[in-house]
């Protein structure tokens, strides 16, 4: 029993000691430091925030992420003024990886990370009390080339070992590049840090840099931060150290002092005598980078070069595998080319995985209508936008010249490109915020089938590489054959349908069927084969001297709404300009702006948004009986062949009206 009481007293005594410690942290910002406690992370830390040790930064974080205290050194590392309030979100932006710092602010542990470009060992302790606190201490890791000049865990041997393990842990290109940049930032503090990969096909470098918010990924900027310094490094293909770019150097005459980088260190990444890319470090202050930094980077440059090369080779093999799979899918689409209604959706679904773009689709060229028209579905564009994605190619225009040249149109900014403006696609390019874009012509034999469009890389605005352009050209050639073959099949089917429809209309017109039924069935047949939105017959009533719509047969609008809209007296001066009065065929693809549209048609145009129309006379033996109209809400919908079919049907209907 006495043993139990003695143990209980000890627990009470320990609890009192811990409580007094917390009160000291909160009230007086004083925590006695114990070296034994620092060596054991699980034990609550006992540290003075105002420690005189210049290499140790201290931060106290309350539950929920509120930063209660930062000592002077911590403020210096995080780039904060002494009177400035601390904010965890801002502190996290200065740390890499940012999630590691957040982890240590939430639970105790130990990690090595970069704060303000400085490699530090961060240890966090949970301080007990009325409400828990996290005490985070940061100690700068001093790197040394000699093992006997530093502790074992910060020796150059340990650094190189850790570096090699981190950069070779993944074969994903972006993960590898992120690991390289992150670990280099641990070794050498930098204001500017880039790694570039060499594209043999383009003979150009692709830059990568750490995402500025501190997230664990890299981004591809459109332009390098180093400019002429990069060009000089590639030309020399050997390490380049410039402590002060503002001071003229006879050995480096290329530097003109215009770069914002004042201290520069660059290394070419070479694997098996092949240039893989470059690694560049810059400071906005002179004299920061020196020979020791260069020596340190050269120790790991080979590991970087081989790791990046292996990741690039793996990525190319993965891309090639995806391309072959996508091309195989196109072959399957070719086998189902007769399924015209689903053809475009199958093509977009098959091609989409081949390219890392937001917008992908087809613009098909109709030679008879002289139109270039977007097809639904169009990846990245909503259907209502695609339905107005069309342009008319005017004769002897700049657009016609582009169509005849049949060359790929490649631009870095479609919204401001002259070729897109000439084609009449600039407005949509601006509305859809199209950046880098390719319009690759699809040519089958001597016929231009249309264009395949790819726009806006998903991650960043970078030009299409030579490899991408070659693949686009291959896909365009295959898609051209598939679409052209489908056109032939579909046109054959459409001609058969139209022949059957004309045969049924002729048979019906010669029968004893009532006129209302003949007109109604005939318009249904014509509306079906042309997929029109409106069909109507205007009959001439000589008894009352009026041309008016036949409400019993009208399609696309209700009879009640149409009856008061379209009527015209024969003594009206405009009657002689109608199709009935002039006996002239009428076809328009832009009714909303066509000055030939008469008042009798205008109500149908404005009320029902009809944009394309065919109007043919109903006449028998030089006697006018009225006219027949087909309309569509799509612009440039009908062609001359459609006009011939409707005229043939109108002659059969006119015979039935007369009889």
Write structural notes for this entry.
- With 659 residues, the chain is of the alpha+beta class.
- The chain has 20 helices and 24 strands.
- The strands form four sheets. A six-stranded antiparallel β-sheet has the order 2-1-6-5-4-3. Strands 9-8-7-12-11-10 form a six-stranded antiparallel β-sheet, with helices on both faces. Strands 15-14-13-18-17-16 form a six-stranded antiparallel β-sheet.
- The longest helix has 45 residues, at 291-335.
- It is elongated, with a radius of gyration of 38 Å.
- The model is unreliable at 28-48 and 145-154 (pLDDT under 50).
Summarize the structure.
This protein has 659 residues and is an alpha+beta fold.
Identify the strand order in the major beta sheet.
2-1-6-5-4-3
What is the average per-residue confidence, as pLDDT, rounded to a whole number?
A: 78
Q: Distance N terminus to C terminus?
A: 124 Å
| Helicity level | 25-40%
Q: Uncertain segments of ≥5 residues (pLDDT<50)?
A: 28-48, 145-154
Please outline the major beta sheet.
Answer: 6 strands, antiparallel
Gross geometry: elongated
Could you tell me the radius of gyration in angstroms?
Answer: 38 Å
Q: How many β-strand runs?
A: 24
SS-based class: alpha+beta
The total of helices stands at 20
Name the beta content range.
15-25%
Topology:
Elements: H1 2-28, H2 35-38, E1 56-61, E2 67-70, H3 72-77, H4 88-93, E3 95-96, H5 98-106, E4 109-115, E5 118-127, E6 133-140, H6 156-167, H7 173-187, E7 192-199, E8 204-210, E9 218-219, H8 228-236, E10 240-242, E11 263-271, E12 274-283, H9 291-335, H10 343-351, E13 357-366, E14 371-374, H11 383-386, E15 390-392, H12 398-405, E16 409-411, H13 418-423, H14 426-431, E17 437-444, E18 447-457, H15 466-509, H16 515-530, E19 534-541, E20 546-549, H17 559-562, E21 567-569, H18 579-582, E22 586-588, H19 602-608, E23 612-620, E24 623-632, H20 640-658
Antiparallel strand pairs: 1-2, 1-6, 3-4, 4-5, 5-6, 7-8, 7-12, 8-9, 10-11, 11-12, 13-14, 13-18, 14-15, 16-17, 17-18, 19-20, 19-24, 20-21, 22-23, 23-24
Helix pairs in contact: 6-7, 6-9, 7-9, 9-10, 9-15, 10-15, 15-16, 15-20, 16-20
């Amino acid at each position: 029993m006495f043993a139990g009481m003695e143990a209980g007293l000890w627990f009470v005594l320990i609890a009192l000691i811990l409580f007094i410690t917390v009160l000291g942290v909160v009230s007086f910002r004083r925590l006695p430091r114990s070296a034994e406690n620092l060596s054991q992370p699980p034990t609550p830390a006992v540290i003075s925030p105002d420690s005189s040790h210049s290499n140790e930064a201290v931060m106290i974080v309350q539950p929920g992420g509120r930063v209660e205290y930062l000592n002077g050194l911590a403020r210096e590392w995080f780039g904060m003024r002494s009177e400035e309030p601390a904010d965890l979100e801002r502190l996290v932006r200065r740390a890499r990886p940012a999630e590691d710092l957040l982890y240590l602010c939430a639970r105790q542990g130990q990690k090595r990370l970069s704060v303000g470009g400085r490699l530090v060992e961060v240890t966090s302790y949970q301080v007990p009390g009325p409400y828990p606190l996290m005490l985070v201490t940061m100690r700068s890791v001093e790197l040394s080339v000699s093992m006997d000049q530093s502790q074992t865990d910060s020796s150059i041997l340990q650094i190189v070992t850790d570096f090699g393990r981190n950069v070779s842990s993944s074969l994903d290109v972006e993960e590898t590049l992120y690991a390289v940049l992150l670990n280099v930032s641990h070794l050498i503090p930098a204001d500017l840090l880039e790694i570039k990969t060499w594209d043999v096909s383009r003979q150009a470098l692709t830059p990568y840099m750490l995402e500025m918010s501190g997230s664990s990924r890299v981004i591809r900027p459109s332009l390098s931060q180093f400019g002429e310094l990069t060009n000089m490094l590639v030309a020399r293909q050997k390490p380049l150290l410039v402590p002060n770019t503002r001071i003229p150097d006879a050995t480096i005459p290329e530097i003109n002092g215009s770069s914002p980088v004042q201290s520069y260190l660059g290394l070419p990444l070479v694997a098996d005598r092949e240039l893989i890319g470059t690694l560049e470090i810059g400071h906005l202050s002179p004299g920061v980078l020196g020979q020791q930094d260069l020596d340190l980077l050269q120790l790991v440059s080979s590991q970087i070069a081989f790791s990046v090369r292996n990741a690039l080779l793996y990525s190319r093999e993965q891309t090639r595998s995806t391309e072959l799979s996508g091309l195989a899918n196109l072959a399957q689409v070719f086998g189902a080319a007769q399924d015209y209604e689903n053809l475009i959706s199958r093509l977009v679904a098959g091609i989409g995985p081949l390219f890392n773009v937001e917008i992908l689709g087809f613009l098909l060229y109709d030679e008879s209508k002289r139109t270039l028209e977007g097809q639904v579905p169009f990846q990245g564009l909503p259907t209502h936008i695609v339905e107005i994605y069309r342009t008319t190619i005017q004769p002897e225009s700049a657009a016609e010249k582009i169509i005849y040249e049949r060359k790929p149109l490649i631009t870095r900014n479609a919204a401001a490109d002259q070729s897109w403006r000439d084609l009449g696609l600039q407005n949509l390019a601006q509305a859809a915020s199209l950046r880098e874009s390719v319009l690759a012509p699809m040519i089958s034999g001597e016929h231009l089938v249309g264009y395949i469009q790819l726009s806006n890389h998903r991650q960043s605005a970078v030009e299409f590489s030579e490899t991408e352009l070659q693949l686009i050209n291959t896909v365009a050639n295959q898609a051209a054959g598939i679409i052209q073959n489908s056109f032939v099949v579909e046109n054959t089917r459409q001609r058969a349908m139209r022949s059957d429809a004309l045969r049924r209309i002729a048979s019906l017109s010669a029968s004893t069927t009532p006129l209302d039924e003949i007109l109604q069935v005939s318009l249904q047949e014509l509306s079906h084969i042309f997929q029109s939105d409106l069909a109507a017959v205007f009959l001439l009533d000589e008894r009352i001297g009026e041309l008016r719509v036949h409400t019993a047969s009208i399609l696309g609008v209700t009879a009640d709404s149409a009856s008061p809209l379209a009527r015209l007296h024969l003594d009206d001066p405009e009657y002689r300009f109608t199709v009935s009065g002039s006996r002239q065929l009428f076809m328009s693809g832009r009714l909303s702006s066509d000055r030939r549209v008469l008042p009798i048609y205008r109500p149908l145009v404005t009320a029902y948004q009809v944009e394309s129309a065919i109007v043919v006379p109903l006449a028998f033996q030089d006697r006018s009986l009225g006219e027949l109209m087909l309309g569509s809400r799509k612009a440039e919908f009908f062609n001359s062949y459609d006009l011939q079919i409707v005229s043939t049907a109108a002659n059969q209907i006119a015979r039935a009206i007369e009889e």
